[in-house]
Each structure stands twice: as C-alpha cells, then as structure tokens.
Specification:
Layout (H helix, E strand, L loop, with lengths): L26 H12 L6 E4 L6 H11 L3 E5 H10 L2 H12 L3 E5 L8 H17 L4 E5 L3 H7 L2 H7 L3 E4 L10
Parallel strand pairs: 1-4, 1-5, 2-3, 3-4
Helix pairs in contact: 3-5, 6-7
The protein binds adenosine-5'-triphosphate (ATP) and magnesium ion.
C-alpha cells in the first residue's frame, strides 16, 4: 500500500488563517490517521460529517505533517479551471500530481454541474494513477447521497479506501 511521505516536524503551510491543533482532533480520527500513515488502512480517506464538526481542520492537521500537500475546495478548483488559461490549468494539475497529499474539500456543496463533475472525477483518477490514492475527500453529505449527486462511478472511487464519519456538534458555536 502507498505510504504518505512525512516531515520530521509538523509545519503549517496551507490555509494559514485557519489555526488548528492535532490535539483538538477527534481521537478516533487521529487513530485512523495513524493507520493510514502506517499503511494499515487504505487510501483515500473520505471524511464526512455535519457542518462544523471539524473536518477541514482535521485534514489540514494531517497535511501539516505531510512532506508536501495541497488543498482545494471543489469550487476553487472549478473556478481555477474556468478562469485560467489551459496552460495554467495543466500546470496546476501537474503541481497537484507532485504533492504527497491532496485535500479536496466541500464535495457537492453547490449544485453539481458538468464542470464540478469533471474536476472531481479527474482528481480521483489522478490520485489513483499517480499518487497511490493518497488524498482526503471531504463532504457534509452521507456517502449514499454522493452517488445521487454525482454517480456510481464517483461514489465507488470516493469510498474505495477508508470512510470516516466525523460527527459531533457544530464546533463553531461551541464557545
Ligand atoms: N483541530 C482543530 N483545531 C482547532 N480548532 C478546531 C479543530 N477542529 C475544529 N475546530 C473548531 O471548529 C470549527 C469548525 O471546524 P472546521 O471548519 O474544520 O469544520 P468543518 O467540519 O470543516 O465544517 P464545514 O462542514 O462547515 O466545512 C473551527 O472554526 C474551529 O473553531
Ligand atoms: Mg470544512
């Protein structure tokens, strides 16, 4: 099984405006991270759960330990694809292919269209073919709803590895 390349010490390089700590990640999920890193659980990780349960920050905490990592929401990648020249888009996919870990967040947040479908499908295939499937996919939806919103082919790829439900209250309102 593919192994995530790690750095000696965690370092925050993505989304610097989002403070986070692994000590604030659900213990069971930290355990799953350990298994993934050790090659004892299969990639990719599909992280699903309600709004504010801590999915994005948890994924970023693992990315901080990765040798190299990248983050996109489906919308940011779709917008990039729409707004940039083909050469820039090709370069972005190449950049992503070279990353040890990629996070694709907010799957099926907005209504899915042809563009978001193709961006998600491409990401899934690129990670599978070039990066040992080492990726974290994040959604608020229950996995079966992903089959409805996308289709069986994307559902199959998203759920091919480790699926983790991160439940709990909306932590944005916890204070
Ligand atoms: N590991 C963490 N370290 C620090 N704060 C955290 C962590 N996890 C969650 N929080 C707190 O919980 C809030 C929600 O976390 P996060 O944005 O990761 O949730 P989410 O599940 O991605 O939400 P959404 O579904 O809306 O995208 C954060 O704003 C932060 O205050
Ligand atoms: Mg989030």
């Amino acid at each position: 099984m593919a192994k995530l390349r790690l750095r000696d010490r965690p370092e925050r390089r993505l989304l610097l405006g989002l403070p986070r700590g692994m000590n604030q990640v659900d213990r069971r999920l930290v355990d799953v991270f350990r298994q993934l890193v050790a090659g004892e659980a299969p990639w990719p990780l599909l992280l699903h759960g309600p709004v504010g349960s801590g999915k994005t920050r948890a994924a970023l905490c693992l990315a901080d330990f990765a040798d190299t990592a990248a983050y996109h929401s489906v919308d940011s990648l779709s917008d990039f694809t729409m707004q940039r020249q083909p050469g820039d888009v090709a370069a972005e996919w190449e950049r992503l292919a070279g990353k040890a870990l990629v996070i694709l967040d907010e799957l099926a947040q907005r209504r899915t269209n042809e563009l978001t479908y193709s961006v998600v499908k491409r990401m899934l295939d690129e990670r599978e073919f070039h990066a040992g499937n080492i990726a974290i996919y994040i959604t608020n939806l229950e996995p079966p709803a992903l089959a409805e919103i996308f289709d069986d082919r994307i559902f199959s790829r998203l759920t091919a590895g480790t699926v983790f439900p991160l439940d709990g209250p909306d932590r944005r309102h916890a204070r």
